[in-house]
Design a protein that fits this description.
- The strands form two sheets. This protein has a seven-stranded mixed β-sheet, with helices on both faces. Strands 6-8-9 form a three-stranded mixed β-sheet.
- By secondary structure, it is α/β, with parallel strands linked by helices.
- It has ten helices and ten strands.
- It starts with a strand and ends in an 11-residue tail after the last helix.
- Helix content is about 45%, strand content about 15%.
- Bound molecules: 3-methylmercaptopropionate-CoA (MMPA-CoA).
- The site of 3-methylmercaptopropionate-CoA (MMPA-CoA) has 21 residues, from strand 6.
């Protein structure tokens, strides 16, 4: 892997490009990768200007924890107006992650809490190592989620489970998290990055229009009424199948040259 140029030693993010995959690591392990403004804005900058040729991104954290959420030391002195602007900044940045140019895979371990879970839920695929635990301590700290958690997390696990997490401080383990839909994959400790790279490689092999439709059309279709959603789906399907790449892939299948669907893969 090559380090992308011009990264000062104390950068809150490490980025490395590995062919078509960009690996982004939160880099404040001494603060359990708590997200201060500098880190959030650095994420915005990375997702606003992905290097040419990148087709998939991976977000992970340095150290034993994915992310301890909002950097609470920056919260103390904020008034209501500043609070709204701050929350809206998170929304802007996490929208760039969710609705950017490429699918994003998160590698989770240790704490995936508060704003860390909000960041993970803006990613398209979550791979959790066995040490991962999920919580929303905002409820116990006298605050509320502000990084899009109330919109994205119920879409993964339902309103009732998120309400329980915030009202009671409930912590879900990695295994429970996979069972309820917080992660799609579970791995042994230290196996997350290898799995994420395998998934990312797979994603890079998809037709570009399919990846685009999955990031940009699917969540909007799922949020629509049935009537609008079905219409939107037909338009998206027609555009996708019209591409030269789709036609070539379908021809390959009919000529017996494409991989078949294999159970267990
Ligand atoms: C922090 C933060 C943080 C750690 N902001 N500094 N999130 C939380 O409420 C979670 C708070 N953190 C924890 O519960 C624990 O730190 C962990 C379970 C994640 C890790 O425990 P541990 O024992 O490995 O580490 P530690 O000793 O607690 O923390 C190490 C250092 O990181 C320590 O600083 P130090 O200077 O004393 O060494 C901690 O203060 C610091 N640290 N977490 C600031 N979050 C958009 S709105 C989102 C709203 C939220 O995310 S609220 C939930 C915030």
């Amino acid at each position: 892997m090559e380090n992308t140029p011009a990264q000062p030693a104390a950068s809150p993010l490490h980025t490395e490009q590995n062919g078509e995959i960009l690996v982004i690591r939160l880099n404040r392990p001494e603060k359990r990768n708590a997200l201060n403004d500098e880190t959030i804005l650095a994420l915005e900058s990375v997702f606003s200007q992905l290097p040419q040729g990148v087709k998939c991104a991976i977000i992970s954290g340095e150290g034993q924890h994915f992310c301890a959420g909002l950097d609470l030391s920056e919260l103390r002195e904020r008034d209501a107006v500043e609070g709204i602007h701050h929350s809206r900044m998170w929304h802007r940045v996490l929208d760039k992650v969710q609705y950017g140019k490429v699918p994003v895979v998160a590698v989770l371990r240790g704490a995936c809490v508060g704003g860390g879970l909000e960041l993970a839920s803006a990613c398209h695929i979550r791979v959790a190592e066995k040490s991962t635990f999920y919580a929303l301590p905002e409820g116990r700290r006298g605050i509320f989620v502000g990084g899009g958690g109330s919109v994205r997390i119920p879409r993964l696990i339902g309103v009732a489970r998120m309400t329980d997490m915030m009202l009671t401080g409930r912590v879900y383990s990695a295994i429970e998290g996979e069972n309820i839909g917080l992660s799609q994959y579970l791995t042994e400790e230290n196996g997350g990055m290898e799995k994420a790279l395998e998934i990312a490689q797979n994603i890079c092999g998809n037709a570009e229009m399919t990846n685009y439709a999955l990031i940009h059309a699917l969540p909007r279709i799922a949020d629509s009424s049935q009537d609008i959603g079905l219409m939107f789906e037909s338009l998206m399907a027609a555009i996708a199948q019209d591409s030269a790449e789709a036609k070539a892939r379908l021809a390959d299948f009919l000529a017996g040259k494409a991989q078949k669907v294999k159970p267990g893969s």
